[in-house]
Description:
The structure holds two protein chains of two kinds. Chain A is an alpha/beta fold. Helices cover about 35% and strands about 25% of the residues of chain A. Chain A has 18 helices and 20 strands. Chain A has a six-stranded mixed sheet with strand order 6-7-8-3-9-10, sandwiched between helices. A six-stranded mixed sheet of chain A has the order 16-17-18-13-19-20, with helices on both faces. A four-stranded antiparallel sheet of chain A has the order 2-1-4-5, covered by helices on one side. In chain A, a hairpin with a 2-residue loop joins strand 4 (about 60-65) and strand 5 (about 65-70). In chain A, helix 3 crosses helix 4 and helix 3 runs parallel beside helix 5 (about 145-160). Chain A starts with 5 loop residues before the first strand and ends with a helix. Chain B has a single domain (about 5-290, about 300-330), classed as ABC transporter involved in vitamin B12 uptake, BtuC (Orthogonal Bundle). In chain B, a hairpin with a 2-residue loop joins strand 1 (about 165) and strand 2. Chain B is about 70% helix and about 0% strand. The interface between A and B is medium-sized, with 38 and 31 residues.
Amino acid sequence: MRQPLLRLSQITKSFGAVRALKGVSFELHPGEVHALLGENGAGKSTLIKVITGAHQPDGGTLEIGGTTVSNLTPTRARKLGIACIYQQPALFPDLSVSENIGLRLEGGAFFAKVHWKQRRKNADALLARIGAALDPETPVRSLSMPEQQLVEIACALGSGAKTVIMDEPTASLTQVEQELLFGVVRDLRASGAGVVYISHRLEEIFALADRVTVLRDGQSISTRAVRSELGAMELTEEELISLMVGREVASIYPHRGGSPGETVLELENVCCAAGGIANISLAVRAGEILGLAGLVGAGRTELARVLFGITPADSGTIRLLGRNVQVRSPQQAVSLGIGYVPEDRRRHGVILPMPIAENMSMAVHPKLFPGKWLRFEAERALGLRFIEELGIKAYGPEAPGGSLSGGNQQKVSLARWLATEPRLLILDDPTQGVDVGAKSEIHRIIRDLAAKGLAVLMISSDLPEVLGMSDRIAVMRGGRLVETFEGSTATAQRVMSAALRPS
Amino acid sequence: MASLSPSLKKNVLRHESLLLLVLLLEFAFLCLYARNFGTPDNLSNVVRHSAEIGLLALAMMPVILTGGIDLSVGSLMGLCAVLFGVLTHDYHLATLPAAAVTLAAGLFAGGFNAFLITALRLPPLIVTLGTYSLFRGLAEAITQGTKTYRAFDPAFLSLGETRWFGVPLQAWILTAAAASFYLLVHRSTFGRSFRAIGFSPEGARYAGLSVQSRTALPYLLTGLVAALAALLFTARLRQARADAGTGYELCAITAVVLGGTSIFGGVGTLPGTLAGIAAIAVLTNGIGRVPAVFKAGIGGELASLLTGALLLVALAGPELARVLSTRSAKISPSPKTL
């Protein structure tokens, strides 16, 4: 057996109270494509950051090329032959492609002369190697996201990295670019490099990977070979999914409620150029959970922002309880009875340094403090009520939001909107980055709310969640609503193919 | 205080109790060694002379709490003083209507800042840097840089000397302003919004707070208060000139920051600001009365030297302590709040 390029054993890492990694072991061999699979929040990003030296692990050992490394820094990781291609390319937008490649690869020195011709030739050669038809003199700003990713890959190649990490590299690629990328990955493998390949798309993993390691709740659950020595498939999709979620998918979701009531929200041809969405028509009824599925960037969050008045609609009709309304600001949305638990909990959902009771009362200031004077007892009571009702783990209403774990923060964000007693609740990836326990609690809470007659519009990138929770599922792609399924007829296959099908 | 989270409470209170201790030591030292420092007459003077900066600092506190800054208050004082002079001298307005127009003008100027900052979303630092020059420039243009207005109504001028129950009028005004701002910042939903906006404008917006109007309010108040300060200043110095309030904006900001308000917004208390004002006022007055032996050959500049040192120590001290304790104990850094 050859020396592994990378060996991690029992890596742990905590952020405050949140234990992101609880013991991850992982090995990468030369000439191997090793997929890393896990739900959102399973710890993949943290693990990558440990490998690239951006985070220091709290415990466990990290070996690179057979030697144990401690106090790894990003610079040192790069020197040791580790390159990472992130979902969001980190290039200088105002510099050209060749300058960006040059900055990554050329060693700097004081008063060193720039060999422009050499730099250009080098860039040309690297781009040609990955089959990218880019002019090295184009400024990066004018490139599309996938093109920028190709530049990143060129950098990784040029640095002679032995370990290349790709974090959801195909998330924004078209079919053709994807094929191109797969070619590059196979070339890398053939040249003896190791590739850590992260993707949510199972079919890619089956097409590319030699082995796959599944992460769940910050632990490496299992490492499996995708194919046997003879090339036969060793693993099925079902096996992988159940490894990821850890339980049978169907059993973990609460039962659907009864029949839905009156129509609460109705959209007709809603467009918003700023949000890149067009001609959205849908309806959500009281007591119903409408799941909104689609890939990242399909326009789901943008639709939520339109409904909440953050980027108001340009045209189309929004009807709330049968009445035509304009939602031009979040305040207006709140007064209309719309609540929005946003996607980015740490930036938008909870103001982390503020006590959770203050976070919960924030959307009900007029109701709770009618004379504009704060009533601390009333606020505390509100905090205690939701801590009790939602089972929030915190030392009290005065605990700052930042001291809570992700799942509990999400409950605080939810409590803020429940306090407004909304008619329509929009949830944007409500269990993203939340541990499994809190996740099923949040699911139960959402189901209870719907049972009490709330209309729920639930955006989710987590396919099992959409399938398990929704009464109906609407699928968005490229800023448009492409298909709607009844919950009972929807399957992962059908929803995914609607979300992916090229238009 | 009830609106502070415990972890912050600990830090803020530590900062403020430290400041209070420094203030007491300062006071004790000056009473012992400075000539005539502790006399009732001199203490009245401390208040009288620091009233304008004190008012500006009180109004500045909510601005900084929202994560903003107002550099234009000193210049606006100059503009308002000149305006008051023009109204009473050239337009022969009586004192009361002239004062009312001046206050309205201050409010309007504050509104101008607020409009640029909230409606056009320009950074407060740049906007008020612009109006800092603009207001002073206007004042100088009106007076051609030289004119001084002196002939004021004696009743108005006596305001600078008035005492109620033996306490200078300025002290009453300062107390009333401090109480009002305390209620605004710590007891009303406005103050809560300022804090939320200071921590995270986006977060406040997603919570359905009306971020624009809540951000605008503190700038309106600094405008109004700058006009009030201009009137008090004019009465006290018995003259109105374009250079009134020069440099006061920085003194006010110093007092607020010294008082524990984070320049990044969100964190701070009004009592802290009061302590900051007092520390600077006492230092400025007392240092002139200290015998030469304590001054190491430095004259009147010692006050600003010490103020600067105090500010840096007050800010760097807790940070330094935190960094050192993190280094030795390897505790993960406290959640990023600034």
